[in-house]
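so my prof wants the structure for this chain in the tokens format not the other one, which i didnt know existed until like an hour ago. anyway here's the sequence
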Amino acid sequence: MMGSLVLPGTDFAAAAERSVVLLVPAADDDRLEPAREAVAFWNARLAELGVATRLATRVVVASPVSRALENYARGVAQRAVRLPGGEAEPDAPAEILGLGADIVLLLSRQDIMSYAWPLPRVDPPRYLVVIRRVRAPDRNDAMVTRHVVAHELGHALGLLHNDLPDTLMCGPCQPLTATPDETGFLPLTDAERARLVALHTDP
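here's what i got, hopefully its the right format
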């Protein structure tokens, strides 16, 4: 990680800790605080559900591996609109695997779609979560950003889309018209809560 700046994140000693490396282009990136809030949201929800899983985050600014990850992120975005992942999907670059994280959360410099992508042929599973850059001043909305980050992290935790537009894991979503609950985020469904318990509880 030579040449990069590491900012303090949130450290947990949970039995089922999931490590998150949050790659940010600059320390003053407007998406950094909403991303941290999204991680805090998930840790609070997982604690409420009584499961051991927690997201332990390390923030890295201006990482020298970011260029390789940006190239991979663009390739995945271009591929995803045509084909799902599969046997023909290229391996993830060594730079992303070298980070040693369960989830690599890239605050991208690119105007590409935001997504969560399971890295191919990696066991145990790891994810690349990409958050697009803000396209214009009228899109620079922290509420939207933190919901997008929380939504994509939800996929990395095992949740799928639902057909309820006013919930966090909606598909499609209406985050600008929906009302957050007492957590400050759009709600999870009862079925999603049950799925999280099933996925993150030891048999």
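also thought this was worth mentioning. The CA atoms of residues 16 and 53 lie 4 Å apart.
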